[in-house]
Structure formats: structure tokens, C-alpha cells
């Protein structure tokens, strides 16, 4: 609050600056510097909903963000796709985005589809509507994404209203949410500020992440980085509530460390996990839902480094109660690249992470004192009703990990993890489907210009 009140922040969006001034903030229009008294800042933050529901086309995929609930999802705007079998990477296309959406639709521990790649085969004028259409048409899960133009954003809103059934229905059950970044340190830029104002006016869920980098755009200390991230993200929260009190808004963090040898962004550092876990705790203090970042790796291939970096940051964020962990699956190489097999491997990691979030249930039935008395010294619990009742809900059963003996493993072809992941990905992708109902899909394709589909491309 001292930073918001004393240091201030720059606002380069004319609409956002106008709203802050009308609210009573101290505004220097020449320098675009804004300062908000702490009482007014807390008043605005208090207007933000403490729970935000993000809906899927299938109601079973709805996510309730708030408190210490934890969900996971994809993320990034990766430029490349990596094929582990050939060890080659290539530029990502629109068809890659559709394929990844179909893959994620069947990976049960990835709960939300945040548009993970940039289709290099499209012009920027049509990229927004095509990315969101690819998501909505290929997964029943909630679709979230960043934006490249205001016109594109409004096209996406119109399309989502068609898929939802009406504008009112979309507000009741938001099938899409959009990301409006805050630029660290302490800056609301022109484009993202305009996006935030327009979306808040329409009641569309908005995520306001910031990406402070230790020693570059934030203090080098982890606590200083968390402070910077918290202030930056709260700027977006305040703006949405000035525009439209009650707008569903999510605090966000892509905070991480910097390799100070060359000032490169790092995606797999343990400090990234710590900063995002602490960010979740700050969001709980302000009672605003939180979008964290974890699960990435700086590795260029699907190797041991990719596994341990993804697991550690995901686990730290989850155990801190991060409501939504974005980037938690599929990303590698400083978030530049995605890999089909890594989505499947990360789905396994996330299954274990979510089991850790569940924790240890302690009550009379789980402690089983009476059962222990009945079985007694030297007995066993294999055939008891208690074992049958609890075995599947108490223990995570992996879908990818190998738990066979060496002889059994060799008899099945001695396949390593990435090979088993590749097999599962191929099985999932063998059948193509569309998530949007045929009659609605036909209407969207006829009324929304610029969508590239196999039938009209």
C-alpha cells in the first residue's frame, strides 16, 4: 500500500487514466503517474469477488477459484513444437493448437485450457478469434487466453456468446476468460489497459498477471520480487473494479528469477516456485483468486531436468493454495516450445501433485484403531473391507509410471517414459471431435469473419 500511495504507477491507457482520475486518484496527466491512497486502494480491492467460477462447455469441467482451491492448466504462447522422437523443433501452426486442445481434453489432471501456442501460419489480424475458436471447438474445458488486438477480443466475446447461447448466458457461465498483463515494474501500458477497460465493461473474467524478474524488473530478492508482483497485479484488480465493480478478476503472477550472467528469463528455477507460492498467500490475504505459474522447464528436451523442474515448481504452487497454476503442463525451453509427450508426462506429475494437495485425512475411520485391534499382531490387512473401501481414494494410481518388475517391463518392450507418453498421446488423438454443437459451429463459421477451418480454408 505504501508503493501504491507514495511511489505510484504509470498508466498509458487513456481510458484507464480517465477512470483512475474520476475515482479520485492523484493523477499527473503529463507524466501519466497515478497514486491511490491506501484506503481507496483497499476499498477497490474489496469490491473484487473472492470467488470466480470459470465454466466449461461440460458443467463437470467448471472450476471454482477462491480460498485455497487448486486447479491446473496449460499456458504460454510458445512459438515452437518439439518432436521428441526426432529431436527436432518447428514453428507452431493452427493445427498444432487444435491438436493440443484435443489432447488436453482427455488429460484428467489438466483442468483448464489456456491457449499455449501462437499459430505462425496466421496473420495477427485473425489470430485472436482463431486461437479461441481452436480451443472452444476442441475441448470441453474452460478456455483462457491472451490477446493481440481489441477488435480480436470483441470478436472472441461475440463468438463465445454464440457458443454459450446468449450474452446473458455467457455472463452466467463464462466459457472464456482473457489475460490483460501488467508490465513490471508499476506500469499499465496503453494496449492492455484498453483491453482491461473494455472487458471489465462487458463483465468478462479478466486475469491481471505481472512478470517481475529478480534483479531485472524487480529487486533481486525473492521477497522483493513477491512485493513487486503483488503490487503490479493489484493495479489490474483496482482498474477492473473502478470500471465495473464486481467484475470477475484474478490476480496473477508469472514472477521468476533472472540468470544474471546474461539477463535471460528462467522458467524452471526453484525461486520461481517460491515466488509464485508466496504470491498465492498474498492473494489469500486480499481475498482475491490467484493465477500462479509453475510446471515449466529450461530444458530443451524431455529429460530428467524437465521432470524435476516441472514437478518442484508445480508442487510448491499447489501446496500454497494457488487457485490456478498456469503453464503447469507441456512447456519447455524457457516457455518457447511445447511437446505432446510432455503434456502426458506432466499430467502424471499433476496427478501426484493434486494427491499431495488432498493431504492426509485423519479421523476415526482412517486411523482404523478398531481394525488394528481386530487384526492384531502378526496379521495382515490385505483382504479387509477397510482396504477395499479406501485403496483407490487414498492412493494415487498412475496412468503412465512403470511399476512392473524388470522382467515384466522387458516383456512389454522395455519402453521408457517418453515412449509410453507418446503411445498415450497417439491413442487420444486417433479420434477427432468437435466440442461445439454442429448447428452452433455452422453459425459461428458463417457469422464471425476470419476463422480458418478445414471446411472453409
Shape: globular
Q: What percent strand?
A: 5-15%
Low-confidence runs: none
CATH class of the largest domain: Alpha Beta
Major sheet details: 8 strands, parallel
CATH superfamily descriptor of the largest domain: Trimethylamine methyltransferase-like
Mean pLDDT value: 96
Number of domains: 3
CATH fold label of the largest domain? TIM Barrel
The CATH architecture classification of the largest domain is: Alpha-Beta Barrel
User: Helical residue percent?
Assistant: 40-55%
What's the helix count?
18
Q: How much is the radius of gyration in Å?
A: 23 Å
Strand tally: 20
Q: What topology, given as strand order, has the largest sheet?
A: 6-18-17-14-13-11-10-9
N/C terminus separation: 52 Å
What does this structure look like?
With 457 residues, the protein is an alpha/beta fold. It folds into three domains: 2-46, no CATH class; 49-358, TIM Barrel; 364-394, no CATH class. It contains 18 helices and 20 strands. The chain has helices at 2-7, 14-23, 38-47, 94-105, 124-138, 150-164, 167-172, 190-201, 222-243, 270-286, 304-319, 340-358, 364-367, 369-375, 385-394, 406-411, 417-429, 438-447; strands at residues 9-11, 26-28, 33-35, 52-54, 63-65, 71-72, 80-83, 88-91, 113-114, 143-145, 176-179, 187-188, 206-210, 249-253, 258-259, 264-265, 290-293, 324-326, 331-332, 337-338. The strands form five sheets. The chain has an eight-stranded parallel β-sheet. A four-stranded mixed β-sheet has the order 2-3-1-12. Strand 4 and strand 5 (63-65) form a beta hairpin. Helix 4 (94-105) runs parallel beside helix 5, helix 9 (222-243) crosses helix 10 and helix 10 (270-286) packs parallel to helix 11. It is globular and about 80 Å long. The termini are far apart.
Amino acid at each position: 500500500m505504501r508503493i501504491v500511495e507514495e511511489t505510484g504507477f504509470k498508466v498509458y491507457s487513456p481510458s484507464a487514466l480517465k477512470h483512475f482520475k474520476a475515482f479520485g486518484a492523484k493523477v499527473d496527466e503529463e507524466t501519466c503517474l497515478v497514486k491511490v491512497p491506501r484506503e481507496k486502494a483497499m476499498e477497490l480491492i474489496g469490491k473484487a469477488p473472492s470467488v470466480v467460477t470459470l465454466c466449461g462447455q461440460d458443467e463437470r469441467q467448471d472450476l471454482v477459484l477462491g480460498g485455497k482451491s487448486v486447479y491446473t492448466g496449460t499456458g504460454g504462447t510458445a512459438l515452437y513444437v518439439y518432436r521428441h522422437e526426432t529431436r527436432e523443433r518447428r514453428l507452431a501452426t493452427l493445427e498444432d493448437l487444435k491438436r493440443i486442445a484435443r489432447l488436453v481434453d482427455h488429460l484428467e489432471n489438466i483442468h483448464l485450457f489456456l491457449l499455449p501456442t501462437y499459430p505462425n501460419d496466421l496473420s495477427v489480424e485473425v489470430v485472436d478469434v482463431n486461437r479461441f475458436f481452436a480451443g472452444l471447438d476442441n475441448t470441453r474445458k474452460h478456455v483462457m487466453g491472451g490477446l493481440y488486438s481489441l477488435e480480436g477480443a470483441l470478436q472472441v466475446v461475440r463468438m463465445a456468446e454464440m457458443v454459450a447461447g446468449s450474452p446473458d448466458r455467457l455472463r452466467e457461465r463464462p466459457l472464456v476468460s482473457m489475460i490483460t498483463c501488467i508490465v513490471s515494474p508499476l506500469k499499465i501500458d496503453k494496449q492492455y489497459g484498453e483491453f482491461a477497460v473494455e472487458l471489465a465493461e462487458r463483465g468478462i473474467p479478466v486475469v491481471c498477471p505481472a512478470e517481475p524478474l529478480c534483479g531485472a524488473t524487480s529487486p533481486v530478492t525473492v521477497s522483493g520480487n513477491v512485493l513487486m508482483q503483488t503490487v503490479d497485479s493489484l493495479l489490474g484488480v483496482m482498474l477492473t473494479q473502478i470500471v465495473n465493480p464486481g467484475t470477475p478478476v484474478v490476480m496473477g503472477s508469472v514472477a521468476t528469477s533472472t540468470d544474471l550472467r546474461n539477463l535471460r528469463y528462467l522458467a524452471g528455477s526453484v525461486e520461481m516456485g517460491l515466488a509464485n507460492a508466496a504470491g498465492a498467500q498474498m492473494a489469500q490475504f486480499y481475498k482475491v483468486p490467484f493465477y500462479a505459474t509453475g510446471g515449466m522447464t529450461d530444458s530443451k528436451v524431455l529429460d530428467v531436468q524437465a521432470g524435476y523442474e516441472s514437478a518442484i515448481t508445480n508442487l510448491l504452487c499447489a501446496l500454497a493454495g494457488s487457485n490456478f497454476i498456469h503453464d503447469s503442463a507441456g512447456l519447455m525451453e524457457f516457455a518457447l516450445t511445447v511437446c505432446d509427450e510432455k503434456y502426458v508426462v506432466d499430467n502424471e506429475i499433476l496427478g501426484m501433485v493434486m494427491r499431495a494437495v488432498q493431504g492426509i485425512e485423519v479421523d476415526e475411520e482412517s486411523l482404523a484403531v478398531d481394525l488394528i485391534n481386530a487384526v492384531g499382531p502378526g496379521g495382515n490387512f490385505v483382504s479387509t473391507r477397510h482396504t477395499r473401501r479406501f485403496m483407490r481414494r487414498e492412493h494415487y494410481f498412475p496412468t503412465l509410471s512403470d511399476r512392473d518388475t524388470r522382467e515384466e517391463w522387458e516383456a512389454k518392450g522395455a519402453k521408457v517414459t517418453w515412449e509410453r507418453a507418446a503411445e498415450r498421446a497417439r491413442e487420444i488423438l486417433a479420434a477427432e471431435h468437435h466440442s461445439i454443437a454442429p448447428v452452433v459451429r455452422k453459425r459461428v463459421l458463417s457469422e464471425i469473419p476470419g476463422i480458418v477451418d478445414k471446411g472453409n480454408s
